[in-house]
């Protein structure tokens, strides 16, 4: 078991020129769901390790239609096996508001600022690598 501060990192940057064989239909399907007008929702991509969940999420996250629709409201955070809610909120807020110093903010203030963002603009958060359903319950 890795130490608590050692986390698996995933990144939302992907080579857009490289086609993902067999995923095109799924990419377009997820993009379509996310662009629906009243799409206040949680959309989960679940399955066994290694089947391409993160790759699919990356392709959707970097899709031109998604970038245009959500503009400055995009955030990607990797949860991994060991995490702190505060670190997740800091990561999300830092990506939404890079000018904001999140290092000394308490969890409540971080959540308040994230809620303000959600009240004023469309946003898409990819929360990658959640290992247990109970972890999702802690951060949703």
Automatic annotation (TrEMBL):
GO molecular function: ADP binding
Superkingdom per UniProt: Eukaryota
Residue ranges occupied by any NB-ARC domain in the UniProt entry: 24-139
Keyword NAD among record annotations: no
Pfam hit, one: NB-ARC
Key words, A-Z: Plant defense
GO biological process: defense response
Signal sequence annotation: none
Name this polypeptide is given: NB-ARC domain-containing protein
The species this protein was found in: Brassica oleracea var. oleracea
Organism placement in taxonomy: Eukaryota, Viridiplantae, Streptophyta, Embryophyta, Tracheophyta
């Amino acid at each position: 078991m890795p130490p608590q501060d050692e986390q698996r990192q995933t990144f939302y940057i992907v080579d857009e020129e490289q086609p993902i064989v067999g995923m095109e239909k799924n990419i377009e399907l997820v993009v379509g769901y996310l662009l629906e007008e009243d799409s206040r929702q949680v959309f989960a991509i679940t399955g066994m390790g290694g089947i391409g969940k993160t790759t699919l999420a990356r392709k959707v996250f970097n899709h031109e239609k998604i970038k245009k629709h959500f503009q400055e409201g995009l955030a990607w955070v990797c949860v991994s096996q060991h995490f702190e809610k505060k670190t997740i909120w800091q990561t999300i807020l830092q990506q939404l508001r890079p000018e904001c110093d999140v290092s000394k903010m308490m969890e409540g203030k971080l959540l308040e600022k994230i809620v303000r963002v959600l009240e004023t603009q469309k946003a898409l958060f990819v929360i990658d690598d959640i290992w247990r359903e109970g972890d999702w319950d802690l951060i949703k």
